[in-house]
Amino acid sequence: MTGAAGVDLHMETVTGAAALPVVMVHGYLGGSAQWSDLQAALSDRFSIVALDLPGFGRASGHAAPATIAGFAEHVIADLDARGIERCVLVGHSMGGMIAQEVARKIPQRLDRLVLYGTGPLGSMPERFEPLDVSLDRLQQDGVAKTARRIAATWLLHGDAHPGFEALSRIGAQADGEAARIALNAMATWDGRASLSLLTMPSLIIWGDEDRSYRWRQVEYLWTHLPAASLAVIPGASHAAHVEKPELFRMILEDFLTG
Fold this sequence. Notes:
Strands 1-3-2-4-5-6-7 form a 7-stranded mixed beta sheet, with helices on both faces. The termini are far apart. It has 258 residues and is of the alpha/beta class. Helices cover 40% and strands 14% of the residues. Strand 6 (202-207), helix 8 and strand 7 form a beta-alpha-beta unit. It has one domain (13-257): 3-Layer(aba) Sandwich (Rossmann fold), CATH 3.40.50. Helix 2 (68-82) packs across helix 3, helix 4 packs antiparallel against helix 7 and helix 5 (143-153) runs antiparallel to helix 6 (164-172). The protein has helices at 36-42, 68-82, 94-105, 131-141, 143-153, 164-172, 176-187, 215-224, 240-243, 245-257; strands at 13-14, 21-25, 47-51, 87-92, 110-116, 202-207, 228-233.
C-alpha cells in the first residue's frame, strides 16, 4: 500500500485498548525499527504507528524533502492515507522538529504531543559537533561509517552499550543523499516563533547526558510551550528509550493515560 506522500505504508499498527493511535516519528539516521521494543511493551494498551521518513529506514528508496516543513507534510499525508484523524504524536530528535511543524500545521488533530531528545533550533547549539562537520564527514566516510560514529554519541557508554549495533544497523539503511539533505534541512530550521501556538498538552523527555540537545534547548521548549511537562531521565544520553527502556516506557505511559 502506498500513501499520498509516495511512501510504502508497510509498518504494522499494533492495536491495543487505546482509541487514539500513538504515532512515532524517528530522528536523523533513525527508523521505525528503533521503536520495536517499545511497541511490544505497549501493544496491549495502545495502538502504535511507527513511521519511516522518506530516505530512512524501510523507506530509504524514497526521496527526502528538502526542509523540515516538507518532512512534516509527508507525515500529515501519511496520517491522511492511514485514515488517522486524531492522534498522539511522538517525535525524537529531528523527528521532534518535524512533530513541532506538524503540530503547528494541524493542531486540531493532535490530542497530545511528545517531544523527546529535541529542541526548537535545528542547528543544535552545543551539539557534540556542528552540523557542517557532520556533513563533511558524511561525504568523506559514507552512511554506514557515519551511522556507527554518530550512534555511539547517542549512548552514554557509546559502542559498548548492547543497543549500539541495532542503532547502527538502522542508521546504515539511510540513503546517502537523504542523509545529506536532512542535515541541511535541520541547519536552517527554527521553530521558536511557533511554540506559543502549540497549546495541546505536551511532554518533553530528555536524557541528562544528551550530547545532541543540551539543557538550554530543552529548557527553552519547557518554558515556551503553553502546556508542557518535563521528564528528565538520569544517566541517559540521546537514545534514552534504549538505555533506560522501562523508565522511558513508564514516563510515556503515564503521560498517555494521565
